[in-house]
Specification:
Radius of gyration: 44 Å
Largest sheet: 6 strands, parallel, barrel
Shape: elongated
Number of helices: 5
Distance between the termini: 180 Å
Structural class: alpha/beta
Strand content: 35-45%
Number of strands: 32
Oligomer: single chain
């Protein structure tokens, strides 16, 4: 009988253990039974077994429950993936996945509010030491609003971090730090409102990609002391405010910014040491000082000079400081550069000795190259046309006024000499005639004698 009871107890023990492994647990108060994540029916969680064992949760449309995932919420020792969809509020607590050594993927999509607390995605796997052959974790967030990514949220062996169609309201300092074995960090179609200094701090990755996204505010050292081994790409992106040293990144083989708009770009915004060419293509840069001066070449790994290429780029203004670059290792190549300022001969004179005027365009009625505008409007006559017109107008006025004054004084002189009433028949005057006779009290109109030239011999 005792053997039978023992067998039953063993069976119940295995059953309970299997139940725990199958369902997992949430955090409890220590005395009561810990809440399992799939105890709430509205979360729609189900276990998918097989080679790629996974926990998939799809919340019902009418659920109002908050899904809280803590360190002890999962006891699936062979769990490979966690996928959570369409939930109103999901919160990952501290060290929520740290002990899940077989975990390889976390996918979160269509979540109205996602909160990531400190060390929530701290994952080391099996090996304590860095081993590139050891599988690592992939975290993908799609179509979700993240209220806060707390400090140290992402740590450990994380191979891929991707945000797609995601709104992030705040990224705290050191939110992404001490990451190893990273292959790709990407923002696609996302909106980042605020980022604190050192949000991305001191780790290496193969690729850093920002595509079709919007960053409202990037303070200094937003991306600080990162090593990118392959590509650092910014494309189809709007950045509202970028402060000096917002990007401090070493060693990308390729650094390229394309089809992007920077509303306020401070000087030295990019402090990047590259191993290859740097390309800015089809961009709008509103800046007062060169954002390129902080870009340098890794001379230890590169012996050939490289190019900083500016192609089809519009600046709010162009000064002698706009195109300043680090000439140690770099040459500047410009093509189709536009400025929003009207054409200015003085500005052209400042730039003509150092830059290709035929490649820089200002705006009159249509875009006009500096070279063309210089030829048509910046010659001695053309550049002083206004002054010449003013002087000519003044000269004409002087001539007209002088002529008028001459006529006026001539008339006054004649009146003073011959009398003011020469046309009045009652006027009396004395006249001297050639025969020496003097006619007095004689009306002028009756004198018909011919007069000859007067002499002093009268």
């Amino acid at each position: 009988m005792s053997a039978g009871f023992a067998a039953v107890e063993v069976f119940l023990l295995f059953f309970a253990t299997g139940e725990a492994i199958l369902h997992g647990y949430g955090s409890g108060d220590g005395n009561s039974k810990m809440q399992q994540i799939d105890d709430e029916p509205s979360f729609g969680c189900q276990w998918l077994g097989g080679m790629g064992s996974a926990l998939e949760c799809t919340c019902s449309d009418d659920t109002t429950q908050v899904m809280v995932i803590q360190e002890d919420s999962f006891l699936y020792h062979d769990l490979n993936a966690i996928r959570i969809r369409k939930c109103p509020v999901v919160t990952f607590g501290e060290n929520s996945i740290k002990t899940m050594r077989t975990l390889r993927e976390i996918e979160l999509s269509d979540i109205s509010e996602l909160n990531l607390n400190e060390r929530c995605f701290h994952w080391e796997g099996y090996a304590a030491a860095i081993d590139l052959n050891t599988p690592s974790l992939k975290v993908i967030v799609r179509n979700t609003t993240i209220k806060q990514i707390a400090s140290y949220s992402f740590m450990g062996k994380i191979n891929r971090i991707e945000f797609d169609k995601t709104k992030i309201e705040n990224i705290a300092p050191f939110a992404f730090s001490s990451i190893s074995q990273s292959q790709n960090i990407a923002f696609y179609n996302s909106h980042i409102i605020n980022m604190q200094p050192s949000a991305f701090k001191k780790f290496s990755t193969e690729n850093l990609n920002i595509h079709n996204s919007k960053f409202e505010y990037l303070p200094s050292r937003s991306f600080s002391d990162l090593i990118v081994w392959d590509n650092f790409m910014i494309s189809n992106t709007n950045m509202t405010t970028v402060h000096p040293g917002a990007f401090i990144i070493d060693n990308p083989q390729r650094f390229e910014v394309t089809n992007s708009n920077f509303s306020h770009l401070d000087g030295e915004a990019f402090r990047i040491m590259t191993r290859g060419d740097v390309v800015f293509r089809s961009c709008i840069l509103n800046t007062t000082y060169s954002p390129f001066i902080g870009i340098s070449l890794n001379l230890r790994d590169t012996s050939v000079r490289k190019l900083i290429i500016l192609d089809n780029v519009m600046f709010n203004e162009i000064t002698t400081k706009t195109f300043k670059i680090n000439t140690t290792g770099f040459d500047l190549k410009i093509n189709n550069i536009f400025t929003q300022e009207p054409c200015d001969c003085r500005r052209i004179t400042q730039l003509e000795d150092d830059y290709q005027l035929e490649s820089i365009y200002c705006f009159e009625d249509t875009p006009t190259s500096y070279q063309e505008y210089k030829g048509s409007s910046c010659s001695i006559l053309a550049s002083n046309a206004t002054l010449i017109i003013v002087l000519c107008t003044a000269l004409i006025l002087v001539i007209l006024i002088g002529t008028g004054l001459w006529c006026y004084f001539k008339k006054v002189y004649r009146c003073d000499k011959y009398g003011e009433e020469k046309n009045d028949k009652s006027g009396k005057l004395n006249m001297i005639v050639p025969d020496g006779r003097t006619y007095r009290e004689t009306e002028l109109h009756v004198i018909v004698e011919r007069t000859d030239l007067l002499t002093t011999d009268l």
